[in-house]
């Protein structure tokens, strides 16, 4: 009986050690074993990496489409404008004359077909009282940047309206008006001159050469 107890006492530390080792192994296995979320994430990363590799290979073999180059038909230096509608003349409207205590000039560029076009450019306006030693009475310049605000467009009227306060009010009924337009696109210069009735909105005006 005593020998059995002695044998059991000797075996107890061994059993305890074995139990401890088994517990540690279970813990280590639990720490190193990937869970379901990690497995799913790894699979997604692998799919993304494969897709990136596929796109890189496709991009490496991609050839960008080329467009055929053609020679332009427009040459502003040689005044070759191709099929563009460009300013070919300048017209002064019948409403040109005194209005609201100032000189109002109605001017519009026209193309090669004689049609009115909204062409940007600079205007230079000058009015002279030839009956008073050719005195300048309404000089004013309008830069290209003013083109937008000076344009008036409607179903019945399409024109630039240039407002020129009198520098010196005219002493006579008729004054000579000179308007110069420099086209912003082509650089061409057009000039119109006419005698206007300063008090009647140009209704009794006549063209002069």
Account of the 3D structure:
This protein has 209 residues and is of the alpha+beta class. It folds into two domains: 2-60; 85-207, Immunoglobulin-like (Sandwich). The protein has three helices and 13 strands; from the N terminus they run H-H-E-E-E-E-E-E-E-E-H-E-E-E-E-E. The chain has helices at residues 2-32, 36-60, 147-150; strands spanning 74-75, 80-81, 89-92, 97-99, 102-110, 121-129, 135-136, 140-142, 151-153, 158-165, 174-183, 189-197, 206-207. Strands 6, 7, 8, 11, 12 and 13 form a six-stranded antiparallel beta sheet that branches. Strands 3, 4, 5, 9 and 10 form a five-stranded antiparallel beta sheet that branches. The protein starts with a helix and ends with a strand. 17% of the residues are buried. Mean pLDDT is 77; it is low at 200-209.
C-alpha geometry: elongated
- The CATH architecture category of the largest domain equals Sandwich
Provide the gyration radius in Å.
46 Å
Strand content: 25-35%
- CATH class value of the largest domain: Mainly Beta
Main sheet overview: 6 strands, antiparallel
- Poorly predicted parts: 200-209
Q: Output the number of helix runs.
A: 3
Number of strands: 13
Whole-number total of structural domains: 2
Rounded average pLDDT: 77
In short:
The chain is built from 3 helices and 13 strands, in the order ααββββββββαβββββ.
Q: What attributes does this structure have?
A:
3 helices; five-stranded antiparallel β-sheet; six-stranded antiparallel β-sheet; alpha+beta; 209 residues; disordered C terminus; 32% strand; Immunoglobulin-like; elongated
């Amino acid at each position: 009986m005593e020998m059995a107890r002695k044998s059991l006492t000797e075996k107890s530390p061994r059993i305890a050690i074995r139990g401890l080792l088994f517990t540690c192994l279970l813990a280590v296995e639990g720490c190193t074993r990937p869970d379901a979320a990690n497995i799913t994430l790894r699979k997604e990363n692998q799919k993304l990496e494969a897709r990136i590799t596929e796109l890189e290979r496709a991009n490496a073999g991609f050839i960008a489409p080329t467009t055929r180059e053609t020679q332009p038909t427009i040459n502003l230096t040689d005044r070759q404008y191709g099929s563009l509608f460009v300013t070919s003349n300048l017209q002064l409207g019948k409403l040109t004359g005194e209005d609201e205590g100032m000189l109002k000039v109605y001017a519009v560029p026209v193309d090669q077909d004689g049609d009115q076009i909204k062409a940007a450019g600079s205007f230079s306006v000058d009015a002279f009282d030839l009956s008073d030693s050719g005195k300048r009475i309404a000089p004013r310049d309008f830069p290209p940047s003013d083109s937008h605000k000076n344009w008036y467009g409607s179903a019945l009227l399409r024109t630039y309206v240039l407002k020129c306060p009198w520098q010196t009010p005219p002493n006579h009924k008729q004054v000579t008006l000179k308007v110069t337009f420099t086209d912003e696109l082509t650089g061409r210069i057009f000039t119109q001159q006419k005698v206007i009735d300063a008090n009647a909105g140009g209704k009794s005006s006549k063209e002069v050469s």
